[in-house]
Amino acid sequence: MAxxxxxxxxxxxxxxxxxxxxxxALLQEEELALAGIVRxxxxxxxxxxxxxxxxxxxHVRDLPLVEAALICVPAQQVAGVARELLQARIPVxxxxxxxGQELERHYLEFDEMCRRYRASxxxxxxxxxxxxxxxxxxxxxxxxxxxxxxxxxxGVALHHSAAVERLPGVADxxxxxxxxxxxxxxxxxxxxxxxxxxxxxxxxxxLADPVYAAEATQVFELDSLADLEAEDGQGLVLERxxxxxxxxxxxxxxxxxxxxxxxxxxxxxxxxxxxxxLAHGAHRYALS
Length: 288
Hints:
Shape: elongated
Order of helices and strands: EHEEEHEHEHEEHEEHHEHEEHE
Helix content: 25-40%
Number of strands: 14
């Protein structure tokens, strides 16, 4: 008779929004199990009902078995929490939201700790840093001589566009506008097309309209706008355009609307699945 595969016992350290999302996601995992939750005794947050049958402790040593840990605390606390876990030879996953030189120093500090305590870690396993960085790298590989434009914004307030909905082939349309870091407005138009309609023709008609030609406009096709209309998460547009000197007119655009906490929790669990067998040291997250 075949034996069920043993699940990796994973502790969640911190029970804010990210920790709660990670703990709930672990309950649905086939390869990972929630070993317990570690949080400050004075924490005011209430443990959700779905997690109350699992141990909730003040220190990881109070859990019976921990084979890995997800660090879900504020960025300024991550290094201290990681040090305790790595000293106990517990592999960790973290996703501190840092940028630039501060992020590089953070990675070097993690690698030094991991090698000192002969343990392993996956760092930058979140939405950003993490997956956004990987998308940027892929875009730069495909268009080596170019420039990146990255716009982050909270969920764009969308409204129906009567002007676009009147166009042949358009079943429904939503649009919104945000201002980038330089203050330049950027308009987003989301289309649900009628069966058989040509997206390219509809997009060209929109971009030729003086109303839209006056601003930088991105047009996207979706199967249904119902879910998009109800969203209130975050948004991101990553563009990579070839420079004139490259002799190419290539461009790439990634447009995303999402719940950053939900995405980060999924990425942290993906990283946790890869911890087993890693060499000692800090390993930057990468998609398989």
